[in-house]
Amino acid sequence: MHEFYQPGSGVPGNGQAPGSGQAFAPHPGYVEEKRRLRRAGNLFGGATLLYFAVSVAFGLLFGFLISLIYQITGRHLFGNSEVSYYLLNIAAYVLSFALPFSAYVSFVKMPWRVAVPWKRVRVGTVLLSIPAAFGLSVVGTILTSVLSSLFSLTGYQPVVSDMPLPVTTPGLVLYFIQLAVLPAVLEEIAFRGILMQSLRRFGDWFALLVSSLMFGLFHLNMVQAPYAFLLGLWFGFLVLRTGSLRISMVLHGCINLSAGLMTLWLNGMPENWVLVVNLVYIVFWLTTGIAGFLFLALRARGPLQLYPAQSWMRTGQRVGVYLSSVGMILALLAILFFMLQNFERIV
After folding, report:
1. Within a domain: 13
2. Is residue 312 in a domain?
């Protein structure tokens, strides 16, 4: 185990004198662990705020450049408005992840070889994990539908801002690069790599839960957040099991690619046919997903060895301390602000 993961020393306690029922001064080990958790929360909260700042700033800058060039030359940048749109959005997307998460790695002093685990993964494991991931995504979609129905009782419903569908071949290529390739690489490095690996010193269960939660929230809408959280748990579990981001990148790419293909295929299709196709999709992936989970369980070599933290707190307490740091509170408020933009009033 790399020294970066070594936990704090000491024996967990509960803040009370044994058998007395009376509170006493917190153990120095407890105080130190709480301080480290708050520092970790502040660092990632700062990275999250920087992510939003970079994303908004470059989005506005690139939009201004497109408009300015068109007004001056009478032509779209790169000669095609669709190509310009996708290329500039790709640039803003890459920068919004690269700058904040690189800064986070620097501040936590984590080697990149630890931040991006890259072991080989058995092909059979990857193939069986694909239907399992799709089955889980269907469960998440059903959960989203339930939540949307509950939200509708308030007079509002969650929505998602979809990318415009491409109409040219270059646009189609860039559409799938932005939808399936880049998220599979950058988001997996960011959440299952940098964030989850940096938090493993507080315990693998803690790291898995927090990284999955932030992965879901980073989608900034309640349509995608529930199933993104579930998939984050599955992707993170597989990364911990295999010691590699390769498997989560493949699964993430497959999920997003399927979503894009389904969107293009169903576009303009009669509503009754859309319902039939979606029903077949749900039944197929639920069935094969269950089979995938069962075969993976049978193929598993030994129990999953999660790194146990020598902690003074339970996992839930650690999550509470982490999320209640000043940096994370500000980050969660920013996330809430953007999430609220993705609700619309029911007419």
Report:
1. no
2. no
Instruction: Say if 3 falls within a structural domain.
Output: no
Three-state SS for 185?
A: helix
- DSSP letters of 16-79? B-TTT--B-PPPHHHHHHHHHHHHHHHHHHHHHHHHHHHHHHHHHHHHHHHHHHHHHHSS-GGG
> What value does the mean pLDDT take over residues 176-182?
95
Between the CA atoms of 282, 273, 157 and 63, what dihedral angle is there, to the nearest 10 degrees?
100
Query: CA 86, CA 96: separation in Å to the nearest integer?
Result: 15
Radius of gyration of the chain (CA): 22
In angstroms, the Cα distances linking 163 to 141, 188, 239 are: 19, 21, 29
Q: Are 179 and 100 in contact (CB under 8 A)?
A: no
Residue 18 lies in a domain: no
Total structural domains in the chain?
1
pLDDT tens track for 267-306: 888 989 999 999 999 999 999 999 999 998 888 766 566 7
Torsional class of 19: left (φ above 0), alpha (ψ -120 to 50), beta (otherwise): left
Residue pair 342/222 in contact (Cβ under 8 Å)? The answer is yes
Residue 140 sits in which domain range? 27-306+317-345
pTM: 0.89
Q: How is residue 69 written in tokens?
A: 């060039």
Question: In this model, does residue 73 exceed pLDDT 80?
Answer: no
Tokens of 70: 């068109």
User: In angstroms, rounded to a whole number, what is the distance separating the alpha carbons of residues 239 and 197?
Assistant: 10
- Name residue 345's beta-bridge partners: 156
**Cβ-contact 249, 117 below 8 angstroms:** no
